Amino acid sequence: MAQKLQSDRWMFIATIALVLISVVMVYSASAVMADVRFQQSTAFSSKQLMWALLGCVFMVGMMHVDYRRYRNDRLMWTLLGLVVVMLVAVLFSRPINGARRWFGLAGFGIQPSEVAKLAAILFAAIMLERRADRINDIPQTLLPIIAVVGTLAGLIVIEPDFGTSVAIVAVVGCMVFAAGLSWRYMGTILLVGVPAAFVVLMQADYRRRRLTTFLDPWTDPRGDGFQIIQSLQAVGTGGVTGKGLMQSTQKFFYLPDPHTDFIFAVISEETGLVGAVIVLACFCVLAWRGLRLSARIQDPFGSYLALGLTLMLVLQAFVNMSVVLGLAPTKGIPLPLVSAGGSSLLINLVGVGVLLNISQHVSQGRKST
């Protein structure tokens, strides 16, 4: 009889919990705004529910596809080529809030930078496995990774989307470091990369203002400091158990983007410390199981792929929650699996599906030994 492979239950439960929280909280955070803008309180939440169902179908589907099939040059270069074309094409799309990040398709927004995350992680995992014995070889290993990831990040910066580009570089950087990159090279990359990132950061006036208001938001309470002040008020007034579902006051046009980038503030206000800790605990479970998976899988490709996909989720979640709590400058980075946004939700659920498939091979290896 064929052996039945088991996926990681903890990871699956944490993911489903976050998706359920997303559907409920997107409705709660967006109902008033949607009613004013579209005369339909479910305008945002109905789309989120549709994307959640579609994403869960994709996640279950990816669970049943052997992750080793992705170790494929044709797939890798096709995906990279498609992503580059999309990132270039989106620069000619209609700007939304001053940025060109989305394609409009049948009333839904498609964000190419989300697909770029998967493409960068897949490329890095394949390269690191094939050249594990030459990880510190600049021409053979480091330059190709820097060229490909740098191209993707550069196109995303132009949109502009500085936060996502930094996230992609950070995830791939952690993957390369975990593969055994010399501390000397790591130090050199940081010495070059940090000043370069600072220059890019300071070139845009709105980024400079975000940095200064992060240090003291009360210097401009009605301007650039408005977001973080309203976010902190939402978190602070939630107390231990919160005001109750649908009872947030900050979502009444005080808190910008309450259903997207600042949904964690609404969660904290309506469900209090209890709800915030539950969300945080779910991401801690994803981090624990994903990093554990990366360490236990015997296949190097599976290990690097699991590490990259895990970091894609937890690093972004850490940054988003840090912004909401005033621990980092404001950035347009959503809370994975929770914030409203179809592309982000779908891609993250695809990533979780791949992780769950990798976990099946870990359980198979343990049972057979």
Quickly list its features.
369 residues, mainly alpha
Q: How would you explain this protein's 3D organization?
A:
With 369 residues, the protein is mostly helical. It has one domain. It has twelve helices and two strands. The protein has helices spanning 9-38, 43-63, 73-90, 112-130, 138-158, 162-178, 183-203, 205-215, 226-237, 263-296, 300-324, 342-368, and strands at 103-105, 108-110. A two-stranded antiparallel sheet has the order 1-2.
Shape field: globular
Structural class: mainly alpha
Strand residues, percent: under 5%
Number of domains: 1
Question: Which percent range fits the helix content?
Answer: 55-70%
Mean pLDDT: 86
Distance between the termini: 18 Å
Low-confidence stretches: none
Query: Which sheet architecture does the biggest sheet show?
Result: 2 strands, antiparallel
Rg value? 21 Å
Total E-strand runs: 2
Helices, by number, come to 12
The SSE order reads HHHEEHHHHHHHHH
For the largest sheet, list the strands in their spatial order.
Answer: 1-2
Provide a short characterization of the protein structure:
The chain has 12 helices and 2 strands; from the N terminus they run H-H-H-E-E-H-H-H-H-H-H-H-H-H. It has helices at 9-38, 43-63, 73-90, 112-130, 138-158, 162-178, 183-203, 205-215, 226-237, 263-296, 300-324, 342-368, and strands at 103-105, 108-110. Strand 1 (103-105) and strand 2 (108-110) form a beta hairpin.
Secondary structure elements and pairings:
Blueprint: H1 9-38, H2 43-63, H3 73-90, E1 103-105, E2 108-110, H4 112-130, H5 138-158, H6 162-178, H7 183-203, H8 205-215, H9 226-237, H10 263-296, H11 300-324, H12 342-368
Antiparallel strand pairs: 1-2
